[in-house]
Design a protein that fits this description.
By secondary structure, this protein is of the alpha/beta class. It has 16 helices and 16 strands. It has a domain at about 120-355: Aldolase class I (TIM Barrel), CATH 3.20.20.70. It has helices spanning about 50-55, 60-70, 75-90, 105-120, 140-145, 155-170, 190-205, 225-230, 245-250, 260-270, 290-300, 325-345, 355-365, 415-435, 440-445, 465-495; strands at about 1-5, 25-30, 30-35, 40-45, 125, 130, 150-155, 175-180, 210-215, 235-240, 280-285, 305-310, 385-390, 395, 410, 415. It is globular.
C-alpha cells in the first residue's frame, strides 16, 4: 500500500518562534497519491484507502479515523484494518511529529557571525560591462535598475582592486572563483583579458587555483576569448532564446536589427573547440512550444539546456509571464516534456533539458543520508555571489547591480558587513512565518531574495513563488514515480 521513496533528513529540536510545519501532507500527483513526511523529508506513494485514512488523521486520532472509515463503509473492513496498522507503524517512526525547521534569532546571529566574521571569502563576481550590445525586451537591467547614468565599462583599476581584495580575504582557501557578468561582459574584452591574466599571476604567487565562469550572449566570442575559455576550463552559459524568429524578436541589437546570426556564429565557433556548452533560453510572453525549443537547442549542439521565464519583480514588463503562460508551461510539461524525458532515459540517454535532475539525484541517495539542516541563507547573496559593479560599487548579486538601495559597500573599502547581515535579517523577517510553517520548507528553502526585493531596499513576500514551487515538486514526484515504474518494466522484460 505504501512505497518509500527516500529518507533525506531528520527533525531539528531547536525551539521555534513560528508555527511549525504540519507533520505530513497528502497530495495527488499524476495518477498517484503520496504522503510527504515533513520530519524525515520522505515522499511515500500511497493507495486511495491510505490517502483517505491520513486525511481523517489530520483531525482524528488513528483509532477514531479507523472508526469513521469503517462507519462509512467505503472500503472493506480488512482494508481499513490493514491501513490502520501501517499508519500506526509510520506513527512509531515519527509521521505525526511536527518538525521544527525555524531559525531562531540566536541561531541566525551565530550563523551571521560565522559567515562574515570567521570564514574566508573566496568568490566574487565582476560586472565588466553595465551595458550591452543587445536590447532584449525582457532584460531586468532595464526594468529593475534605478534611473542612473549608465556606468559603462569597468576599468582595469577597479578590476585590479577587486582581484586584490579577493585574494587578500581568501585566507587559507586553496582556490578562488571569479565570475564575469554584464550586461555583456565581452564588450569589455581588454579588462576581461587583464582580469584573467592578473588573477592567474596572483594565483601562482599565493599557491591558489583560480576558477572562472561567465555568462555571455555569444555575439562577441572570438578566437582569443575562446582560447582563454578553453585553457582555463571556464564554467560557461550562453544566452540564446531559440531559432531566428524568436531570438531576433526578443533580443534585437541596440540598433533594432536581429542578433541571431552574430550569436550563432560565435557559439558555433566556441562549439568547434569546446564540447560542453550550456544554453539559457528565456521564454517570454506569449509562451512558445517548449518541446520545439528543446529540440532546436538539441540539434544546435548544446549539451545542457536551461529554460527560464520572464518575471520582473520590481517593474513589470509587457513580456512578463502571465497566469495563462504559467498554466501553458505546466500543460506542456505534463503532455510533452515529461514523455520526451522518459523516452530519453529509457534509451540510456540523459536528457539535455532535465529540470528534475536534482530531485531525482536526491531521491536516489541512500537512506543513510545524514540529516539535512535548513540553512538560514537561501543562496550566496552578500557572500559568494557579491558583485562588483563597473564603478566599484558592491551588490548582493549581479541582479541587484544598479539598484541604489541595495548597495552593500565599495571595492575600495570592501563589503559593509553590517549591511550584509541586515540583508539576511530582513529576508528572514520577511519569509519566516510563511516559509518555516510550510510543509515544503525543507525542499524549497524559500524564494530567491531578488525575486521578492523592492526598489526601496525592502523585501515583499510573493505567493507566486510558493505556487510555482509546489507545482514543481509535485511534478517532480510524479516524474520520479513514472521513471521508477519504467525502470521496473525494463528489468522485468530483461528477465
Amino acid at each position: 500500500m505504501m512505497t518509500n521513496m527516500s529518507t533525506n533528513s531528520k527533525p531539528r529540536t531547536q525551539p521555534s518562534t513560528v508555527c511549525n510545519p504540519p507533520p505530513y501532507r497528502v497530495f495527488e500527483a499524476g495518477e498517484d497519491s503520496f504522503v510527504y513526511d515533513t520530519t524525515s523529508c520522505r515522499f511515500i506513494r500511497i493507495d486511495p484507502p491510505t490517502l483517505r485514512f491520513l486525511e481523517l488523521c489530520q483531525s482524528h486520532s488513528v483509532d477514531d479515523a479507523k472508526g469513521v472509515m469503517l462507519g462509512q463503509g467505503e472500503f472493506p473492513e480488512s482494508t481499513v484494518k490493514s491501513v490502520a496498522s501501517e499508519v500506526r507503524a509510520l506513527a512509531r517512526n515519527g509521521l505525526f511529529k511536527r518538525p521544527d525547521y525555524s531559525v531562531s534569532s540566536d541561531r541566525l546571529e551565530k550563523e551571521l557571525r560565522h559567515r562574515y566574521d570567521a570564514t574566508p571569502w573566496n568568490k566574487l563576481e565582476l560586472a565588466l560591462a553595465e551595458t550591452c550590445n543587445l536590447a532584449c525586451t525582457y532584460c531586468y537591467c532595464g526594468t529593475c535598475r534605478d534611473i542612473l547614468p549608465n556606468q559603462g565599462l569597468m576599468s582595469e583599476t577597479v578590476a585590479r582592486q577587486a582581484i586584490n581584495w579577493l585574494f587578500a580575504v581568501s585566507g587559507k582557501s586553496e582556490q578562488v572563483s571569479i565570475t564575469f557578468f554584464g550586461g555583456e561582459p565581452l564588450l569589455n574584452k581588454p579588462v576581461f583579458m587583464f582580469a584573467v591574466e592578473y588573477s592567474q599571476k596572483l594565483g601562482k604567487l599565493h599557491g591558489k587555483k583560480v576558477f572562472y565562469s561567465m555568462t555571455t550572449n555569444g555575439t562577441l566570442l572570438d578566437d582569443d576569448v575562446i582560447t582563454v575559455i578553453k585553457r582555463y576550463n571556464f564554467g560557461l552559459m550562453v544566452s540564446l532564446d531559440g531559432p531566428p524568429e524568436i531570438h531576433n524578436a526578443q533580443c534585437p541589437t541596440r540598433g533594432g536589427e536581429g542578433s541571431f546570426d552574430a550569436a550563432a556564429t560565435g557559439i558555433r565557433r566556441l562549439m568547434a573547440r569546446r564540447r560542453a556548452v550550456t544554453v539559457r533560453c528565456t521564454m517570454a510572453h506569449p509562451v512558445p512550444r517548449m518541446l520545439d525549443l528543446v529540440r532546436y537547442f538539441e540539434e544546435f549542439g548544446f549539451t545542457r539546456i536551461v529554460l527560464g521565464r520572464v518575471v520582473n519583480p520590481v517593474h513589470k514588463s509587457p513580456v512578463d509571464f502571465t497566469d495563462d503562460d504559467f498554466a501553458s508551461c505546466e500543460r506542456q510539461a505534463n503532455e510533452e516534456i515529461v514523455p520526451w524525458m522518459l523516452d530519453k532515459l529509457a534509451h540510456g540517454e540523459r536528457p539535455k533539458y532535465y529540470p528534475y535532475s536534482y530531485f531525482v539525484e536526491e531521491q536516489e541517495k541512500s537512506v543513510k543520508t545524514t540529516a539535512r539542516k535548513v540553512s538560514p541563507f537561501k543562496c550566496g547573496a552578500c557572500r559568494g555571489t557579491t558583485t562588483v559593479g563597473a564603478d566599484g560599487m558592491l551588490y548582493p548579486c549581479h541582479r541587484f547591480v544598479g539598484m541604489e538601495a541595495w548597495r552593500i559597500g565599495t571595492i575600495g573599502n570592501g563589503p559593509d558587513y553590517g549591511r550584509c547581515k541586515k540583508f539576511w535579517r530582513d529576508y528572514r523577517a520577511c519569509v519566516a512565518v510563511k516559509c518555516e510553517s510550510c510543509w515544503l520548507w525543507a525542499q524549497c528553502k524559500g524564494p530567491c531574495p531578488w525575486e521578492i526585493a523592492q526598489a526601496d531596499g525592502s523585501f515583499k513576500f510573493s505567493d507566486r513563488h510558493c505556487e510555482q514551487m509546489e507545482k514543481h515538486i509535485k511534478k517532480a514526484v510524479a516524474f520520479y514515480t513514472r521513471l521508477k515504474a519504467e525502470e521496473r518494466k525494463v528489468r522485468m522484460g530483461s528477465k
